[in-house]
Amino acid sequence: MESKTYTFLITSNRHGKTHAITIRSAWIKTIVAFGIVFAVLIAAIGVDYFGLLLDQGENKRLRAENSQLTRQFEVVEGKLSTLEDSLDRIKTLTTKIKLITNIDDDDRVMNLSVPHVPRFEQNMAQYESGMQDSDVRGPASTEFIRPDATFLQRPPLDEMHGELAATRNDNYADLSIRIDRAVKESTLEEQGVIQLQELLQERQSILNATPSIKPVNGWFTSPFGYRVDPFTGRQELHAGVDIAAPIGTPVMSPADGVVSYIGYEAGYGKLLVIDNGYGVHTRFGHNSQIYVHLGQKVKRRDIISAVGSTGRSTGPHCHYEVRVNDVPVNPMNYILNE
């Protein structure tokens, strides 16, 4: 059976010639089928292409949000590191204060250092109250710490790379405010603890420099004040106290200090002077031996010399003086174990 054909006539207006093209119907059906398949392929490719464009825009948005979150995380991590360092310093200072004051309770130490600083929970209650009131009165009070601009300002866009602005996160801004307040609070507490430590250390230094113990295990034979001098028979100021004890009895330093003088004087015999700081000097006369050297640091109860009877003395004893700004004072006012 002869297949069906189609003839197409092509005529040229310029040359007046006519061309006839005969095509079988089977070829026409094949061409139409390929055309339909091609159109379907083009449509599918177009849909995929537009899908890729949409995914690319979404990826750019996600990259922008991820970049912002990374920056915010780095800022928060830095703030938390600062807070942790501050808390570590507070812990160290609190331990030192506990050693100085013999207080074992951390809360008592903190109350001593910063009694004027409210607790963090109170600060947050004030902050939340201020945020609620701001709906009526306007912006919250400026006494609260403003969070870093990184948290509240919209990040600059990288338009060259098609970066999209990320949506603000109110919870994150609130977290930033809380961290800033905690950092400020820890800083105030640290300053208070430092000031307390400095005050206690200074007072401890004063206490350590105060001659508070009896330097010799003996008995008092002559008090401080005016008396009849046993050698001249005249009324003269006895600038210290005499403590009688057998020769060789240890003489202890009644306070911390530095040996400032060792020598022999006619009235004192072998004389030892300790500079206790804060204008206080202690003097020990009539020693038989001296066990320390000039410039040596001594602590309270360190043995510094031995009782003797050198110089102008009627018997073995220690002549003990306390001078404040080179003015003799009654040593009995300082001795606490009598």
Mind explaining what this structure looks like?
- The longest helix has 77 residues, at 25-101.
- Residues 114-124, 130-155 and 157-168 have low confidence and may be disordered.
- The chain is an alpha+beta fold and 338 residues long.
- Helix 1 (25-101) runs parallel beside helix 5 (170-209) and helix 2 packs across helix 5 (170-209).
- The protein is rod-shaped.
- It folds into two domains: 1-209, no CATH class; 219-333, Glucose Permease (Domain IIA) (Distorted Sandwich), CATH 2.70.70.
- A hairpin with a 3-residue loop joins strand 8 and strand 9 (269-277).
- It is built from five helices and 14 strands.
- Strands 3, 6, 7, 8, 9, 10, 11, 12, 13 and 14 form a ten-stranded antiparallel β-sheet that branches.
Strand count, sense and barrel status of the largest sheet are:
10 strands, antiparallel
Strand residue content:
15-25%
**Rough outline:** rod-shaped
Q: How many individual helices?
A: 5
Low-confidence segments? 114-124, 130-155, 157-168
Helix-strand pattern: EEHHHHHEEEEEEEEEEEE
Radius of gyration, Cα only, in angstroms? 48 Å
Helix percent band: 40-55%
Global structural class: alpha+beta
End-to-end separation in angstroms reads 145 Å
Mean pLDDT: 76
Question: Tally of extended strands?
Answer: 14
Number of domains: 2
Descriptive key words:
rod-shaped; 338 residues; alpha+beta; 2 domains; Glucose Permease (Domain IIA); 43% helix; two-stranded antiparallel ribbon; 5 helices
